[in-house]
Amino acid sequence: RREGPLVGLRVLVTSGPTHEPIDPVRVLANRSSGRQGHAIAAAAARAGAEVTLVSGPVSITDPKDVTVVRVETAREMLEAVERSLPADIGVFAAAVADWRTDGAPQKLKKGGGGPPALSLVENPDILATVAGRADRPRLLVGFAAETENVVAHAKEKLARKGCDLIVANDVSPASGVMGGEANTVHLVSADGVESWPAMSKGAVAEELVERFAASLGRPA
Ligand code: C5P
């Protein structure tokens, strides 16, 4: 029997990178570990929610008491997310590849012709797509991984993506956030900006889940 401030609510979380095939053996990828998204899914489950985690390729273990759907590409992630709706809360922590290539059917070979030209195609924006749906989650949370002007970019993203909250973090190499255990986040919403001190990704997840409960009128 579940108990906690999110009992009876459905939470959908995306996490990890996506991998976009270049050919059958190569991918376009990014350095997301999935740690922050997975920690949020785990914290939401501990708070009593029914949690679905749609995860790109990661090497960390599945969170407890969570339904995990594994995908590779952005388009697969969008499909899995749409199949997992409706949800009361959507937390889009995945580092979705902005672009994919056409994906060659056979392994690209070195040859006299020089390196292949990769032509990039824009991927669907999963968060913006969900924000525009009739069954949009009541609380929709996006992430903004930036290497500069973190808060300014997050404010712009809040408006453009149509979400209620952006959790912004600095992922410049010096920050050690990508792949690391700790995170320093800024919460950007219509109410303004709130900057949290550096914390473990687990602690960030716990605090965020408390926020989610409070903002849906469910104080702990
Ligand atoms: O535009 P940018 O990629 O910086 O936006 C980040 C936010 O949008 C994250 O919440 C991410 O999960 C989400 N996103 C998405 N689909 C994309 C790109 C980003 O859901 N194709």
Q: What's a concise summary of this model?
A:
With 220 residues, the protein is α/β, with parallel strands linked by helices.
Give short descriptive properties of this protein.
220 residues, alpha/beta, eight-stranded mixed sheet, two-stranded antiparallel ribbon, 27% strand, globular, binds cytidine-5'-monophosphate, decarboxylase, multifunctional enzyme, magnesium, EC 6.3.2.5
Low-confidence stretches: none
* Global outline: globular
Helix content estimate: 25-40%
Query: What is the arithmetic mean of pLDDT?
Result: 94
Account of the protein in words:
This protein is an alpha/beta fold and 220 residues long. It is built from five helices and 14 strands. It has helices spanning 35-46, 74-84, 126-131, 150-161, 201-215; strands spanning 10-15, 20-23, 26-28, 50-55, 67-70, 89-92, 99-101, 120-122, 139-146, 165-170, 182-183, 185-189, 192-195, 199-200. It has an eight-stranded mixed sheet, with helices on both faces. Strand 12 (185-189) and strand 13 form a beta hairpin. The relative contact order is 0.18. Cytidine-5'-monophosphate is lined by residues 14, 74, 92, 94, 96, 98, 123, 125-127, 142-144, 157, 161. In the C-terminal section; belongs to the PPC synthetase family. Keywords: ATP-binding, Decarboxylase, Flavoprotein, FMN, Ligase, Lyase, Magnesium, Metal-binding, Multifunctional enzyme, Nucleotide-binding.
